[in-house]
Amino acid sequence: MSVFVKICGLSDPEHVHAAIDAGADAVGFVFAESVRRVTPVEAATVSAHVPPHIKRVAVMLHPTNDEWQEVLREFTPDVLQTDAEDFASLDVPESIERWPVFREGKGQPEARNTYVYEGKKSGQGASVDWSRAATLACDGNMILAGGLAAGNVAAAIATVRPYGVDVSSAVESAPGQKDARMINEFVSAAKAAEKYL
After folding, report:
1. Could you report the per-residue pLDDT of 136-158, keeping only the tens digit for each?
2. Is 35 exposed, middle or buried (0-12, 13-18, 19+ CB in 10 A)?
3. What is the DSSP letter of 54?
4. Beta-carbon contacts of residue 114 (< 8 Å; ≥ 6 apart)
5. Nearest-angstrom CA–CA distance, 57 and 27
6. Which CATH number fits domain 4-196: 3.20.20.70, 3.30.360.10, 3.30.70.20, 3.20.20.10?
């Protein structure tokens, strides 16, 4: 079984290509308040040459339907990732995958499809309780996020046995500044940990 790897918070074509070259399966673009925030047009521009087999993910947080429609119109992502409760008020076409975010301590994921499991705040590098996550990972395709880095992702995969992993701040040389070498090291470490699945 292969580990699905998402590199999140991208804003520069060079780092999008670094993620692709390293073997990432998804690239994430943040439209929520963050040092990594991009506009829909910027996301469309920097992801223009992403191959079709790599998922382009719109990462949002409590968006209005109008905000989401602008992202849909200008960027046309493959996936919308936002907190689970947000989907009730959003008009998401069938052609767009939905990745609900379930936050640690805020109820149990009911998802039977792909979902993201992370801490109370995104992009802060805060880890979740891996033993708790492991009890949830049996349901659906969990993408584990929060506090993962090249140095601990193998242990996280061995403990939680998730479908995938998601990283943002741990592949940056400074807040919002991705580092191609760190991206490559993270993807390599995650892919090498497939033996634990």
Report:
1. 888 789 999 999 999 999 999 99
2. middle
3. S
4. 97, 99, 140, 141, 143, 163, 164
5. 6
6. 3.20.20.70
pTM exceeds cut of 0.85: yes
Residue count (the chain): 197
Q: What is the mean pLDDT of residues 72-100?
A: 96
| Dist. CA 52–CA 179, nearest whole Å | 24
- Give the whole-angstrom CA distance, residue 17 versus residue 70: 25
Cα 91 to Cα 134: distance, rounded to the nearest angstrom: 32
Strand-pair category, 97-103 with 114-118: parallel
DSSP 88: G
Three-state secondary structure of 121-178: CCCCCCCCCHHHHHHHCCCCEEEEECCCCCCCHHHHHHHHCCCEEEECHHHEEECCEE
Q: Where are the domains of the chain?
A: 4-196
CA-nearest of 165, 156, 169, 167 to 196 is 156
**Paired tokens of 6:** 């998402």
CA–CA gap between residue 48 and residue 101 (Å, rounded): 26
Please report where in the chains the tokens 């506090």 appear, as a residue: 147
Q: What pLDDT is recorded for position 125? A: 61
Residue 117 structure tokens: 């499991």
